Amino acid sequence: MFASPIESGIAPSGTLLGLLQRGRGDGWLHALAAPRATAVAALEHCVLHDPRRDWRLEHRSLYYARLFRELGADLDAVAAHLFHPDDLAAGGAGEEREGDEERTGLALSVLGHLSSYGDRRALTLLRRYAMVGANWRWALDELAVRDDDAGLRALGPAILARFPRTEAGETALTITVRDSFEPRPWRVWAADPTRPRQRLRLERALTNGDFDRWQRQMRPSGPRPDWSVAAVLAWAQEGYEQIPRQWREAAAARCLTAVAGPGDRPALRAAAADGPPAARAAALRHLAERGDPEVFPLLEAASAAADGDVARAAVTAFSRMSDRGALAQARRWADRPDELGSCAAAMLASRGDASDAPGVMAALLRAVRGRGCDARELGPLVEGAGRLGVRNAVPVLRHVYRETASSQLRGHTARALAATDPSFAAGFAVECLWDCEEDSRELAARFVATGDARVVERLRRLAADPAERAEVQTAVRGRLADRTVG
After folding, report:
1. For residue 212, what are the CA distances in angstroms to 58, 168, 199?
2. What is the distance between the alpha carbons of residues 17 and 94, in angstroms, rounded to a whole number?
3. What is the Cα–Cα distance from 472 to 442, expressed in whole angstroms?
4. Distances 92 to 134, 136, 164, 172 between C-alpha atoms, Å
C-alpha cells in the first residue's frame, strides 16, 4: 500500500535501533526491557551517528541523556568519538571543518544534559573538548549555561590561545565574540581580575564587536525605495549572477511594494511571464502578494519552468497568498501530481473547511504512497487531517507515526491522532510520555489515560525532573492534580 522507505542510515521501525533513532517513546521502553549491552550499543550508535535529518528542528539530546542515566552507561565511547583523530586539534583561530557540528554536536549536547544532572565526567569531557576540539564553540555554549564561573575562568587561556596575537587573530577573535550564541564565557573572562592582559584583550574585542554590529546596522546594503521597478528587478538579477549566488527574491519583492504603482503592472507581468530567473521570481512574488487578478496563469506557467529556481519561486509565491481567490484556486489545483498541487493541498489543509476533507485525504494518501512517510509535504497534510477531523485518515496517520524518521513530523501526527483517533489516549499517548520531542510529551500529558501504573509513575518523574520544559511540567502537574481530586 505504501512506498518503501528511502535508503538512509535509519534502521527499520520494528527494531530497537530504529526506534531509538526516531526518538520514539517505545524505543525508551524497549531499551529498558532489552539486554543491557544491546541497549547501550544501540544508544551509543545513535549518539555517535546523529540520525536526525535536521538537528535544528528535531530534538534527541535530552532523550538520549536520560537513557544514558537510566541504563547506567559509561561515556568511554563518547569520549573516544570526540577525541578521535578525525577531530581537529586546537590551533590557529579555532576554525572548524564543514561537518564538525553534525559529527559531534549531538554528543556534546548529550554531555551538556548529563552535566545538568550532576555527571562530573560529562562536565570534564566538555571542558577538555572546549580546549582542544574542533567543534569547541558548541562545547563552550553547553558550558556557558551549566558550568560555574570558576570552571569557565580556567578555560579562558586555552580558548584565547586559539587566536594568535596578530591582526588576523584579533579580527577573528572580535568576530567570534560578536557572533557567540552564549556570551557569558567571554564576559567572565573579560572580568577575570587575575589575568589583566586577557581582560584588556577581551574588553577590546567586546567593544569592537559592539561597534562593528552598530556599523553594519548603519550601512544597509539593499536597494532604496526610490528605485524604479526596472532597477529593482535588475538588482535582483545581478545578485543571481554573482559568485556565490545571492538569491534576492524576497528583498526585491519588498522593494517592489514600495516603488511599484498601477502603471507598472504590465512591466511586472511581462517580467513574471518570461523575465530572467531572479527578476521573474521577484515579480511573481510581488504580484502574488498584491493579489493580482492575472497572477494564477503566470504562477502555473512558472511552476512548470525548466529552471528549478523559477519553479520553486512560483510555488513559494502561491503558498504565501492568503486571499479567498487563492483558496478557490487551491481547490482547482489540489489534485495535481506536481509541487503546485502539493502546495494547493497544503493550503486546503491549513485554511480549508469541512468540504475540503476529501481533497486533503487524497493528497495525504498520494504523498505517503508516492514519496513515503518522510515526504516534505506531509507536515501540513497531517495537521490538516487533524484540524478538519478526518476520521478515515486514522490508519494512514498511524502508519506515518510509526514509520517516519522525523520526530517533528511524528509530533504533528500525534496531535492529529489526538483529534481523530478515539484510542489515542490509551495507545500512542502512553509512549509519547517518553518521546524525544517536548511538544509530544506535553500533548501526551494532556490526553493520556492514567489508569496504567507506569503512566502515573512517568508523570511523577517528569514533574520532578529539573531538565523538563516548564510547559510539559505544567501539563503533567495538572493531570496529577486532576487525578488526585478525582
Report:
1. 33, 16, 20
2. 35
3. 5
4. 11, 13, 7, 10
Distances (CA, A) of 453 to 27, 324, 430, 476: 19, 50, 11, 15
Q: How far is the CA of 235 from the CAs of 49, 219, 221, 227, 431, in angstroms?
A: 43, 17, 11, 10, 53
Q: pTM for this structure?
A: 0.88
pLDDT per residue, tens digit, the chain (486 aa), is 333 333 458 999 999 999 999 999 999 999 999 999 999 999 999 999 999 988 889 999 999 999 999 999 999 999 999 999 988 654 444 454 445 678 899 999 999 999 999 999 999 999 999 999 999 999 999 999 999 999 999 999 999 999 998 989 888 888 888 888 898 998 999 888 899 888 888 888 878 755 455 455 555 555 555 688 999 999 999 988 988 888 888 999 999 998 888 899 999 999 999 999 999 999 999 999 999 989 999 999 999 999 999 999 999 999 999 999 999 999 999 999 999 999 999 999 999 999 999 999 999 999 999 999 999 999 999 999 999 999 999 999 999 999 999 999 999 999 999 999 999 999 999 999 999 999 999 999 999 998 888 999 999 999 999 999 999 999 999 888 876 655
Exposed e or buried b for every residue in 293-329, given b needs 16+ CB within 10 A? eebbebbeebbebeeebbbbbbbbbbbebeeeebbeb
DSSP tag of 21: H
Cα(147)–Cα(168) distance, integer angstroms? 30
How many angstroms separate the CA atoms of 223 and 278, rounded?
15
CA–CA dist 98, 108 (Å, integer): 17
